[in-house]
Structures
1.
Amino acid sequence: MVAELVVAGATTVAVGRGIATAERLLPPRPRSIAAVVAQPSTARLARGLARGLEAGGTRAEVRVLPDGEAAKDLAVVAGLYEWMAGLGMSRSDTLVAVGGGSITDAAGFAAATYLRGIEAVYVATTVLAAVDAAVGGKTGVNLGAKNLVGAFHHPARVVVDVDVLDALPPAVRRDGLAEALKAGLIGDEALVALLERDGEAADLEDVVARAVAVKAAVVGRDFTEQGERAHLNYGHTIGHAVEVAAGMGHGAAVAVGMVAAGRASALEMGFTGEDRQREAIDRLGLPAAAPGLDPAGVLALLGADKKRDAAGLRMVLLEAVGRPAVRHVGAATVEAALDAVEIA
Ligand SMILES: NC(=O)c1ccc[n+]([C@@H]2O[C@H](COP(=O)([O-])OP(=O)(O)OC[C@H]3O[C@@H](n4cnc5c(N)ncnc54)[C@H](O)[C@@H]3O)[C@@H](O)[C@H]2O)c1
């Protein structure tokens, strides 16, 4: 079965097994060009897709970018522009990004800006890309700070082949499951129940389709982040500080951040789901605490966090599962939240 969702009236997201095929990416379009961009771990998949596109009459060329964050670099993107120009790509051609969030972000930014924007199609090959990075139209590269330069540009299509996700290294898979749990906590009680029950063994087809539906609903109502889109940052305020201070992976840090935000939610809004949230985090093999960190260092990082303003620290809290709200929290609540994740 293939689940199809439409995001913001602009992107069709297909989630299913064995669906990373050329036919899913582009209708056969003789004489058009597809620039297929991959990372080292997806180069084989990308080459296979390019062969399929060629068989359908589309000229397809593959370019492999450096792995991970190294792809999100203006010099790398400049290389993409030159390559696409050299291929003679016009506005009616397509960039196909095959990979995790670093590839959809970097190649997506190239698609957003080359000739003022060409069609982008993503094959999201990590859970994180499938449930988060590939959906919602944010693209960008790092310049000193993370994602300092970017553009909003919806891909036309996103393909998530769950067979590809099932084969991911466990650590990469887990990283994305933290964001799937976050999606459940802010917008889908049944997704939380599923992750709580099955943990890491949860059927990714269901998990990804449900998490994408949450993000699609939020982005559909607030594309440019004027308000509700901020709810997607649940667990990210303290999570980001922990990511930097502990050098932890993003997903693990978000898990810790959600435990902290859960405590703040209990104190500020009477949230009663802390145990459920922690149970799901445990079952996903994600950490619920970050012991050994210097609280002053974490507080300093929170002070530099863009979510802080004059009235206190701005955090996304939960009144209940599926009922997020943005609130300013004072020092005592922040301290209690850090204490809940053993930063004390
Ligand atoms: N645009 C957005 O809205 C948004 C949202 C969240 C995150 N992001 C960005 O996404 C990035 C993180 O995404 P990510 O974790 O997918 O990063 P990533 O692309 O670096 O992938 C993580 C690792 O998984 C490997 N990998 C990818 N596909 C694989 C496969 N099929 N088999 C084996 N290994 C594979 C990659 O080579 C890499 O080493 C960050 O740069 C972040 O800023 C963007």
Note: The chain is about 45% helix and 20% strand.
2.
Amino acid sequence: MRFWTHDRFLFPLPTGHRFPLGKYRALRERVEAEGLGPVAEAPAASWESLALVHDAGYLERLRGGGLTRREERALGLPWSPELVERGRHSSQGTVEAARDAAREGSGMNLGGGTHHAAHAAARGFCLFNDVVLAIRVLRGEGVARRFLVVDTDVHQGDGTAELLADDPEAFALSLHGGANYPFVRAVGDLDVDLPNGTGDDAYLTALSDALDRAIPTARPELIVFLAGADPWQGDALGRLALTKPGLRARDTLVLDRTAALGVPLCTVLAGGYAPDIADTVEINLATARAVASRHDSGQACPASDYLAS
Ligand SMILES: [Zn+2]
């Protein structure tokens, strides 16, 4: 299977900023070194496709550097042309990974999962909502109609929830810390608030129950998995208490359910703010290994199989 990256695209960040800009290259190098699969550089999402998701005025302000001070504060990153360019590549990586998933059964973006981005707002390091972009693009291509978003980043996917609120054929499931950012929530199709300190066992039970509830309603033709590294116990922004084996069990659970359903899986990274970037990379790499090994064992299901059945 193929992986998508955008790690060559960098942007100016103040020293000490917690955005883990270095993780993307480090992860791509590990994926290549381990031979998990070829890694391709994602092209830039077109402004036309981004307009399938975002407000025209908002996109115009992003393009031209016209964000207000308040908008830039909500984004949490300093605006630059490089930041916007990078966001377009990161977002297209998810579109490409979703296309791979539909064709081959599995796809993975070594980036993406910018789930706080809303219709007309950047929030929490997120400019564009890549997952909703992929949903709208794939639908337009007639590849799949019904989607399930399984968002296990430790923060609620508020942008995704907002964007999918009126979409009866896309189900937004978010499992997240209840006492964590964002403090003003959008309402998703299923939101599971977990208390600070939730450990592996309780987390895995909650995820399993949530999938039991979501899947029969969602009846997905394709699943998008946000495999955030920030539920890890050492994460600076996490507040849950998952171990690395616990996160691997999370990935296995999502992969098992997807295989049981016989639908394609598109995996994206979302957040991860370990004080040492190597920890985040290790967690992301474990996800990439799990996805690749499941694919190589022949358990991945392309959309054509599913739609023909
Ligand atoms: Zn997060």
Note: The mean pLDDT is 96.
